[in-house]
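Thread title: Can someone regenerate the structure for this chain?

I was given the following input by a collaborator and told the matching structure tokens would be attached. They weren't. Posting the sequence so someone can regenerate them.
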Amino acid sequence: SLIRSFPQVDVDRIGLTGVSWGGYLTCIVAGVDSRFRFAAPVYGCGFLGDNSVWSGDFEKLGPAKARKWLQLWDPSAYLARVQMPMLWVTGSNDFAYPMDSLQKSYRLSRGSRTLCVRVRMPHGHGPGENPGEILAMAESLFTKGVPLARITRIGREDRNAWALAESAAPIQKAELNFTTDTGKWQDRKWQTMPAEWDAKTGKTSAALPEATAVYYFNLIDNRGLVVSSEHEIVRP
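Best answer:
Regenerated them for you:
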């Protein structure tokens, strides 16, 4: 409301982003204030009571207080109300907000969603404030800039995985990110290999290596901007 009160601000062109705990707050605000045009949480998501870095703190609270906290103040209580586009930026091994909680969070929102999950993206205000994907989304919504790529479908037949995408900017590279590890998400070792990209059909594909446990695709356009598919668990 304060930002909207400034005469130099176009009230129809205000977005929201936040880093780490700011990303957590971004998820909540997006669910309670529909006046923003888009929201871009970095690292932060909901389901903090599952296996986040704060799991031990919830145990100390005890079941009743932990349940109350999660019902009132966890983003999972608000994300289903989100109608605006959301851009989720994070790393594959984020120490605080693991990938399974991230996926449950972005699947709750009812607006369009775009993922940018870099392998081992560091957690911090430096990398968290600088992703070009956030500015690109803002420009595409506010100044008719070139939008980020959009992954429309994903699928797999045995070890043959694929994704379909639309992109106004040329895709320069497609990658398959995979891990053969199970267990704690923060400790899994992710590997990257080239994936095939067919510009005519908008299809990227790759054969999953033996023993793949989880995988997802990254598409990198000619601006170096990354869009990710949802990760799929092949074996728990």
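The longest helix spans residues 21-32.
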